[in-house]
Specification:
With 94 residues, the chain is mainly alpha-helical. It contains 3 helices and no strands.
């Protein structure tokens, strides 16, 4: 006879929910009491400076410039975004 694999439920943080946890959640949802969410997780990536949302900057470049930046970023184990941020920081500092 084939073994049936038991379903494992996890939280968003990766913690495994026990049968007791699942029953508690089900009881709370099925009750007439309002469901209380104890933690709010921010959506998206964390800000770059830790002070809220980071503004997004988008611009177009010639293919050759992008390819050169991507190649150098790979060599330096960085992202093209990190290279572009550094270049913009240097420009503003001048």
């Amino acid at each position: 006879m084939a073994k049936v694999k038991e379903k494992v439920f996890r939280t968003a943080a990766g913690e495994i929910l026990s049968e007791e946890d699942i029953e508690k959640i089900a009881d709370e949802v099925e009750s007439d009491e309002p469901v209380v969410f104890t933690a709010v997780r921010p959506v998206g990536r964390p800000s770059l400076d830790g002070a809220g949302a980071s503004p997004r900057l988008s611009f177009r470049v010639p293919r050759e410039l992008y390819d050169a930046a991507a190649e150098r970023a790979i060599e330096e184990e960085r992202t093209v975004s990190a290279v572009a941020r550094e270049a913009l920081e240097r420009y503003v500092a001048e």
